[in-house]
Amino acid sequence: MGLESLEAEIASIRESATSVQRTYSQNVTSIQNDATLSDTGKSDQKADAYAHAKADLGALRQREEAVINAAINSRKAIIEAPTKPTASSIISYRDAQDRTDRIADADEAKALIERALRQDDLYLAHAIFDRATQERWHGVAQVFTHAKPEYADTVRELQTLIDTRDAGLERTMQYAIFAS
After folding, report:
1. Mean pLDDT to the nearest integer, 20-48
2. Which of 42, 97, 106, 165 holds its CA 20 to 30 A away from the CA of 144?
3. pTM of the full structure
4. Domain that holds residue 144
């Protein structure tokens, strides 16, 4: 799925969330203005409306997260594909991942990825790149794309997707519901 199409799908999901929030607010106002309900009746109906809206918003948030994570995994698969064709290459990649787990910071990662790329150690280079995307070490990712320009667009999309996924406050507010 292209980035524009993904953004459109996320926008659609978020529009659905806005609709749920709007409906909840209208329901609460209607309940508050219902003269036939006692205070207990109003409270019970508002609690029920809140529970339904919260469940709907939770499902929409999970759907957005699933869409984003699928797109991230798809971009990672494109980048990692050349390094995983056999059982032995999977083991080599795992060993490289274990080695990258011991990297302390971006400077160390940058030096190590430069060396891996010079030595054509794609398993280690890809493992370092993966760690760099997790840690947001953009300079390391730039070293990777400079050496592997065929991945530049995919890396850029991957970084955008990770930023979108990790925009915690924005997403929280998008799917929040405030009890009235």
Report:
1. 95
2. 165
3. 0.81
4. 3-174
